[in-house]
């Protein structure tokens, strides 16, 4: 499964062509990302072929009784409608209808199918990063999110408009869903299709929404987790029942108008073995001399992989004391992978740790360097930089220099961003302060942050070696994560959530210094190495 979770976090703000499918063993499945969580929706309603695979498995691995218990109720086709007798006989079993949606199943049968699918997939997951995938019915909210397809929630239908066709007057344009178009259309119809079936259509008919999901409106109404509720409307419904917000109720146990769509959620991720090999020579190569000091600053924020090497050296009690609190990511995202951030993002900066853990890391690293027989200097001190050392790392002898690059801008000459921050692209610098204090910002803060942060390529943290500039060895000293200092509780440099002014050097913008309680998902650190004995 190839999943780019920093893209998944953007959820409904993704452009349609960036919507990523769940991929297993290098083969694309028909499940597509639909949420800011690690949740995917099947592109299709569950077909007769899908459900028959389930029944065959029950017959071969469980019992004939289990097979019969799960079998759809084919009588739904003739309840008060004798003209559909042929569908009772052929609809589920005949090969001609294999790719049509399964109907006549109960809510419990749909849930049991999802449980079976979960068991089958998890018995042979080829992607070592994934520990468990849960297949289930969506909640009503998740279903609606999938139906909107990333579009504004002011739309009415999944295709992005408030019209069932393109011309109310002539009705000459193609019908966009399988539904009951008039009082004389008692069976529904399949638009411009010529398959001769005046009921359901194949699950892959009509055009998908921007998430790649077919027939989120019409064909068959779909079960959601809230029992008794169905969404999306069916081939026998009028158009108003096909609108995304409409909530319908199932009046009978089974129906020829109701089927279901499976959603998938990555419930757990495998822990990776991400450790760094550490040597004195390596540390010497990855630090940069700071003018007017006796030391060097580490070129990168300390990564998760680097920090895990420190944790591995500790006994269980000490390790527990210094373990990052990944659950604090819930302040920023519901993505399950961020509940395992330290293991799942080895090259991203370590965050959610106390300042004493940063100090303990530096003491551990200092000891390793001073014991290395291949070291250049006899003795060094490794610690958090103080405010002056951090600032000199940025200025390189140029007072009042706001950024480590030579011009006070957030992009280079080619228009590429130079740091990971919150660009607020639609707001001019003169309006930022007023906007941040406005009621509209406070009401829409989360939505604004999600939309604006993606412009620099990252919505949350970026790898510690990103945003490199020609001739500059030090990475991400502005933005990405704010950095802790030795001599103050002030956090410096700004984070992925900070506006540009908060990322500037304090010599230029003292008023934008921040103080954040630790641990925090916005704060990491880099170390300063001072030569004590050459």
Concise account of the structure shown:
The protein is of the alpha+beta class. It has 2 domains: 263 residues, Alpha-Beta Complex (paralog of FGE (formylglycine-generating enzyme)), CATH 3.90.1580.10; 254 residues, Alpha-Beta Complex (paralog of FGE (formylglycine-generating enzyme)). The strands form 4 sheets. It has a 5-stranded antiparallel sheet with strand order 1-2-3-9-4.
Task: Describe this protein's structure.
The structure is a single chain. The protein is of the alpha+beta class and 534 residues long. The chain has two domains: 5-267, paralog of FGE (formylglycine-generating enzyme), CATH 3.90.1580; 280-533, paralog of FGE (formylglycine-generating enzyme) (Alpha-Beta Complex), CATH 3.90.1580. It has 15 helices and 15 strands. The protein has helices spanning 5-8, 48-61, 64-70, 85-90, 107-122, 140-148, 280-285, 304-312, 316-322, 341-344, 355-370, 387-395, 432-436, 439-443, 445-453, and strands at residues 21-24, 27-33, 39-42, 130-136, 221-223, 229-231, 248-249, 258-259, 263-269, 287-289, 295-298, 379-383, 482-483, 523-524, 528-533. The strands form four sheets. Strands 1-2-3-9-4 form a five-stranded antiparallel sheet. The protein has a four-stranded mixed sheet with strand order 7-6-5-8, with helices on one face. Strands 10-11-15-12 form a four-stranded antiparallel sheet. Helix 2 runs antiparallel to helix 3 (64-70). The protein is elongated and about 95 Å long.
């Amino acid at each position: 499964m190839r999943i780019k979770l920093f893209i998944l976090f953007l959820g409904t703000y993704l452009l349609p062509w960036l919507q990523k499918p769940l991929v297993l063993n290098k083969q694309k499945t028909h499940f597509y990302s639909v949420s800011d969580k690690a949740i995917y929706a099947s592109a299709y309603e569950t077909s007769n072929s899908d459900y028959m695979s389930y029944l065959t498995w029950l017959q071969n691995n469980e019992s004939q009784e289990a097979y019969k218990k799960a079998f759809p109720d084919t009588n739904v086709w003739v309840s008060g409608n004798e003209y559909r007798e042929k569908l009772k006989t052929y609809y589920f079993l005949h090969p001609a209808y294999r790719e049509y949606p399964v109907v006549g199943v109960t809510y419990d049968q749909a849930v049991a199918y999802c449980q079976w699918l979960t068991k089958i997939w998890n018995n042979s997951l080829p992607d070592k990063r994934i520990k468990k995938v849960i297949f289930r019915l969506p909640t009503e909210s998740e279903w609606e999110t999938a139906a909107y397809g990333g579009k504004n929630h002011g739309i009415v239908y999944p295709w992005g408009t408030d019209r069932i066709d393109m011309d109310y007057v002539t009705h000459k344009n193609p019908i966009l869903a399988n539904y009951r178009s008039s009082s004389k259309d008692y069976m529904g119809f399949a638009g411009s299709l010529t398959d001769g079936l005046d009921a359901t259509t194949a699950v892959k008919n009509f055009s998908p929404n921007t998430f790649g999901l077919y027939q989120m409106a019409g064909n068959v109404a779909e079960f959601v987790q809230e029992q008794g509720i169905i969404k999306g409307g069916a081939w026998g419904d009028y158009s108003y029942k096909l609108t995304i917000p409409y909530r319908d109720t199932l009046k009978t146990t089974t129906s020829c108008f109701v089927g279901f769509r499976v959603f998938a959620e990555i419930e757990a991720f495998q822990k990776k073995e991400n450790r760094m090999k550490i040597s004195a020579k390596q540390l010497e190569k990855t630090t940069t001399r700071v003018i007017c000091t006796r030391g060097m600053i580490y070129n990168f924020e300390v990564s998760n992989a680097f920090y895990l090497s420190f944790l591995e050296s500790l006994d269980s009690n000490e390790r527990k004391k210094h373990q990052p609190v990944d659950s604090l990511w819930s302040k920023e995202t519901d993505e399950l992978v961020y509940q395992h951030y330290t293991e799942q993002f080895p090259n991203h900066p370590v965050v959610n740790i106390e300042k004493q853990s940063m100090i303990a890391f530096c003491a551990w690293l200092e000891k390793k360097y001073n014991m290395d027989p291949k070291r250049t200097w006899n003795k060094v001190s490794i610690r958090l930089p103080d405010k002056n050392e951090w600032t000199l790392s940025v200025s390189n002898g140029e007072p009042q220099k706001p950024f480590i690059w030579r011009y006070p801008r957030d992009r280079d000459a080619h228009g590429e961003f130079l740091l990971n921050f919150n660009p607020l692209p639609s707001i001019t610098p003169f309006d930022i302060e007023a906007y941040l204090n406005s009621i509209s910002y406070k009401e829409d803060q989360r939505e604004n942050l999600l939309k604006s942060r993606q412009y620099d390529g990252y919505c949350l943290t970026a790898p510690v070696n990103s945003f490199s500039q020609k001739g500059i060895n030090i990475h991400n000293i502005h933005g990405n994560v704010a950095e802790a200092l030795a001599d103050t509780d002030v956090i410096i440099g700004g984070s992925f959530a900070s506006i540009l002014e908060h990322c500037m050097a304090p010599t230029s913008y003292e008023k934008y210094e921040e103080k954040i309680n630790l641990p925090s998902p916005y704060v990491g650190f880099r170390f300063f190495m001072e030569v004590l004995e050459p």
